[in-house]
From TrEMBL:
This is Uncharacterized protein GlcG (DUF336 family). Signal peptide: none annotated. It comes from Chelatococcus asaccharovorans. The lineage of its organism: Bacteria, Pseudomonadati, Pseudomonadota, Alphaproteobacteria, Hyphomicrobiales. SUPFAM superfamilies: GlcG-like. It comes from the Bacteria. Gene3D superfamilies: Haem-degrading domain (3.30.450.150).
Length: 144
C-alpha cells in the first residue's frame, strides 16, 4: 500500500514565466488586466493589477484561478444553475466567469491562472496565451 505519492509543484519562477506571457498579451491587446496565478492548493503565487485594470477584478481574477486549479477545468462553461450552486456552496470562492484556466503537467494539476478586467473573451485570450507559454516551458524541461 502506498501512503504517499509524488507531486509536481509549480514554482515561483514558473508562476512568473506564466505571468510574463499574460502581461505581454494583455499589453499587446491594450486591455489592462488583473492576473492571478495559484498553485494546486489555491495558494497565490503571483498577482498583478496592471495600470487601468478594474479594482474589483482583483477578486474575480483570483477566484477564476482558484476555480480552475480546483476543478482542473476552464471557467465559464458551466450551466447557469450549477454555477449559482457552486458559488453559493463555496461562499463565492469559486466562479464560472470566463478567464480561468488550469495549469497541468502530464495530466496533473499544478495550478491555475485567472484573468479579469476585460471582456470575458479578452480575459480568456490572455489566459490561453499564458497557458501556451507554460506548455512551451514544460516542453523544454524534464518533468519526470
Amino acid at each position: 500500500m502506498n501512503i504517499v505519492r509524488p507531486a509536481l509543484k509549480l514554482t515561483h519562477d514558473g508562476a512568473l514565466a506564466v505571468m510574463q506571457a499574460a502581461l505581454a498579451t494583455a499589453t499587446a491587446m491594450g486591455a489592462p488586466q488583473c492576473i492571478a496565478i495559484v498553485d494546486e492548493g489555491c495558494n497565490l503565487l503571483a498577482f498583478v493589477r496592471m495600470d487601468g485594470a478594474r479594482v474589483l477584478s482583483v477578486e474575480s481574477a483570483t477566484r477564476k484561478a482558484m476555480t480552475a486549479a480546483t476543478t482542473g477545468e476552464p471557467t465559464g462553461h458551466m450551466p447557469p444553475e450549477k454555477a449559482s450552486a457552486l458559488a453559493a456552496a463555496t461562499s463565492g470562492r469559486m466562479t464560472n466567469l470566463l478567464g480561468g484556466l488550469p495549469l497541468k503537467v502530464d495530466g496533473q494539476i499544478v495550478g491555475g491562472i485567472g484573468v479579469g478586467s476585460g471582456t470575458g473573451e479578452q480575459d480568456l485570450e490572455v489566459a490561453r496565451a499564458a497557458v501556451a507559454a507554460f506548455a512551451r516551458h514544460i516542453g523544454n524541461m524534464d518533468v519526470a
